[in-house]
From TrEMBL:
InterPro entries registered for this protein in UniProt: DUF3027
Gene source species: Aeromicrobium choanae
Listed name of the protein: DUF3027 domain-containing protein
Region (Disordered): 1-40, 224-252
Length: 252
């Protein structure tokens, strides 16, 4: 314990510097403590003394020594190593689910949906793609028929918006210059369900979108109605400027 001035006086912080340095020197490895950087009175009677850190790999960090000043006595509370404004620190933690991107999954990887994923609803509450409407959803749930989860309205619209604005939508350069739209192409495979009025699957092996979902308003040069253009060349060629079809003899 070291005596000091009244709590809240500037002498409180200056008096705590020496015992804080002594405690730090006793705790840290030799040669890892630098100059005194300053003092901060966190609250009445609670002071933080800062010292430069000379540890290799800790550039910009500093030692923080917390000291309590009470009844003209100084007590060391804690010694920690903290990053300064120029310190190199690890990036802020981002959960795995927020870091993963489409296409990141590899063989054996799993990515279960969130428990409250708004894109999914129980099949008994929204049906399971049955177009006849004769399936008793509650009975199907009891006996385990169909899928447990299906797309909600939000899930369908989320997918539709993503597909419509993607490479197979109507606003791509290839679609804008296409001779026709996918909705009139013979290579289009129709979908079933609520998205069938806006999307289908391309089945033209020569098309860029073969095997992929395409908007009915998408299009490309491989449309089934595409026909080769006839040549627009002249039927009669003009006389040649230089006749190179005959041999010319010259006398020497």
């Amino acid at each position: 314990m070291v005596g000091c001035g009244p709590v809240g006086d500037n002498r409180t912080m200056s008096t705590a510097t020496s015992p804080a340095r002594a405690a730090l020197d006793a705790s840290a490895d030799d040669g890892t403590v630098g100059d005194h950087l300053g003092s901060t009175e966190e609250a009445p009677g609670l002071v933080t003394e800062r010292f430069a850190c000379l540890l290799p790999g800790y550039r910009g960090w500093y030692w923080a020594v917390s000291a309590s000043v009470l009844d003209e006595q100084v007590s060391i509370n804690d010694i920690v190593l903290l990053p300064g404004d120029e310190a190199i620190v690890a990036p802020e933690w981002t959960p795995y689910r927020e870091r993963i991107r489409p296409g990141d999954l590899g063989p054996g990887d799993v990515l279960p949906p969130e428990e409250d994923d708004i894109r999914l609803v129980p099949a008994w509450s929204a049906g399971d793609g049955d177009e006849t409407g004769v399936v008793d959803r509650h009975f199907a749930r009891e006996i385990g028929l169909g899928r447990e989860w299906v797309l909600s309205i939000e899930g369908r619209e989320d997918a539709a918006e993503r597909w419509y604005e993607g490479e197979s939508g109507p606003d791509t350069p290839i679609a804008k210059q296409a001779p026709g739209v996918c909705g009139t192409c013979g290579f289009l495979v129709s979908l079933a369900g609520d998205l069938s009025d806006r999307f289908g699957v391309c089945a033209n092996k020569m098309a860029n979108a073969d095997g992929r979902i395409v908007a009915l308003t998408h299009g490309c040069g491989a449309h089934s109605a595409t026909r080769p253009k006839r040549s627009a060349s002249a039927s009669k060629l003009p006389d040649p400027v230089l006749d190179s079809t005959r041999a010319e003899l010259e006398e020497f």
